[in-house]
Design a protein that fits this description.
The structure is a single chain. The chain is mainly α. Helix 4 packs antiparallel against helix 5 and helix 14 runs antiparallel to helix 15. The protein is built from 29 helices and two strands. Strand 1 and strand 2 form a beta hairpin. It has a domain of 129 residues: Serine Threonine Protein Phosphatase 5, Tetratricopeptide repeat.
Length: 505
């Protein structure tokens, strides 16, 4: 059990380490946002050792990501110690970043330097397929890969044997890529191993002009394309024009259902700025109470989104406000976890059960704390949206308390919300929970108080000292006769960060 706690602390320490990087100017995003010239970059590089870079950004990845000049990119790529297959983020390399930017000159030079065009990231994307997936690939980037030996007719096993025409068509607004690939002998009627064609790929990107060109060229479409459009592409929510085109021009049935039971509203309901689209499909008779195989309805998904207005729009058509999915989670559970405080209030006012527990025995207080995300101010700058979320947290506590939820009730492991909170490693969360008068010295079923847990996973003394300040007792022992002090002595992170622990004696 200790190993698990220490592993969690080690993961948390990565963010702390990344924060320290920002103190070095050449690793500061603000430096790169100012578009430094080569002279400025040379001055700030100042002996930086690329061989020391493990995970995360370094000067070269920051240069590519911030549209630095090709002279700067080449200069950095020429530095000793660079591993061109190094994991920057989620297994992606410099080449992934350059291709998705898209920066054909950088792609060309990185390939010259030995970057591997077939290298797969953690999501099984090559640099080129990632650019296609991101919707940013252009013809110049494709030609750069072709120059270095890419077989344009190649299919990608990790992408259902799709070829680059399929993977790029959604971003091909002027059909420049598609026409070029067709001139190289690639068929516009290409399909992947699941039978998906160019229309199926393109519809996720929502460009109606591309879809019309594909139809003109005889590419088939089906009812499932409405669901593909609703899913959208990477980090993309489509606009109403593509849905009206599919429903009104191509006569696709608005209530089409996937094999797993989803209708179009399952996918759209929780996305931002989709109010007009949701209203459109409700007017077309799409069922907001339809359950998928996991028991989720569009209304449940909407409750977990940020649009209070959509929850209100759907509410009059809801058959059972306390319906639960296969996990035992309701619309209110979703609203507590990720929705708007106004949605929480509205659901409670309409009879949603504040004392509901999921099938694992977790109540709404658990879900609120478990879904907490620390503000980003401590990790590279403040963020207004994240700070707003923290205000949402307090508002949801007040609403649930008024509805009778007991925040002091033992959790399923016998511990308290403090025990749930320690996994977040954020002292601000404890400060938000403190007014609830939770027993800070309560033990969970493993015989550990929250101070014991904090001693095992903390990377600094901030939470430990705060817990003591609100009454945590240092002398309490675990079932193995360990105190917070003896547990802290075994915490390698505290040792590594030179954190004194004598205050725990």
């Amino acid at each position: 059990m200790k190993k698990i706690f220490f592993l969690a602390a080690a993961i948390a320490s990565i963010a702390f380490a990344n924060a320290q990087k920002s103190k070095i100017k050449i690793l500061d995003r603000e430096f790169w946002k100012a578009s430094p010239d080569l002279t400025a970059v040379k001055a700030e590089l100042n002996g930086y050792n690329f061989a020391d870079a493990k995970n995360g950004d370094d000067p070269l990845s920051l240069a590519i990501g911030n549209d630095a000049s090709i002279e700067v990119v080449k200069y950095l790529a020429d530095q000793p110690g660079i591993d061109f297959q190094r994991n920057i983020r989620e297994g992606r390399t410099y080449l992934h970043a350059a291709a998705a930017k898209p920066n054909a000159e950088a792609v060309d030079y990185l390939l010259q330097k030995g970057a591997d065009m077939n290298f797969l990231c953690h999501h099984d994307q090559t640099a080129l397929t990632f650019a296609g997936f991101s919707g940013t690939v252009n013809l110049a980037v494709i030609k750069a890969f072709e120059k270095h030996g890419l077989d344009l007719k190649k299919t990608y096993p990790a992408k259902n044997d799709a070829n680059i025409l399929l993977l790029a068509v959604g971003a091909d607004a002027n059909f420049e890529i598609t026409d070029y690939l067709m001139s190289k002998g690639i068929s516009i009627q290409s399909v992947d191993s699941k039978g998906n064609n160019a229309f199926d790929y393109a519809v996720k990107y929502g460009n109606v002009s591309v879809l019309k060109k594909l139809v003109e060229k005889g590419v088939k479409y089906s009812d499932q394309d409405l669901l593909f459009a609703a899913q959208g592409a990477f980090r993309k929510a489509n606009k109403i024009d593509v849905f009206k085109y599919l429903v009104e021009d191509l006569k696709i049935k608005p209530d089409v259902t996937s094999a797993s039971g989803e209708n179009v509203l399952h996918y759209i309901a929780a996305k931002n700025n989709q109010d007009d689209i949701i209203a459109y499909f409700i007017s077309k008779g799409v069922n907001i109470n339809q359950e998928n195989k996991e028991g989720n309805t569009p209304f449940m998904n909407a409750a977990g989104g940020k649009s209070f207005e959509i929850v209100g729009l759907m509410l009059p058509k809801v058959k059972n406000i306390n319906a639960v999915n296969t996990k035992g989670e309701s619309a209110l559970t979703n609203a507590v976890k990720s929705g708007s405080p106004k949605s929480v209030d509205l659901l409670l006012s309409k009879g949603a059960d504040a004392k509901i527990k999921d099938k694992q025995g977790n109540d709404l207080a658990y879900h609120l704390v478990e879904s907490y995300r620390p503000a980003r101010g401590g990790f590279g700058g403040g963020n207004a949206e994240e700070n707003k979320k923290q205000d949402d947290f307090g508002d949801k506590i007040k609403s649930l308390q008024k509805s009778g939820l007991n925040f002091n009730a033992p959790q399923k492991d016998g511990g308290t919300l403090y025990h749930v909170a320690i996994a977040k490693n954020d002292v601000e969360l404890f400060k938000k929970l403190s007014p609830l008068k939770i027993d800070v010295n309560a033990k969970n079923k493993e015989g550990l108080t929250v101070l014991h847990r904090a001693a095992m996973v903390s990377r600094n003394d901030e939470i430990l000292k705060y817990l003591i300040s609100i009454g945590a007792k240092k002398e309490i022992t675990s079932e193995f006769n360990e105190t917070a002090y003896t547990l802290a002595k075994e915490n390698d992170l505290l040792t590594k960060n030179n954190i004194g622990i004598d205050f725990l004696k």
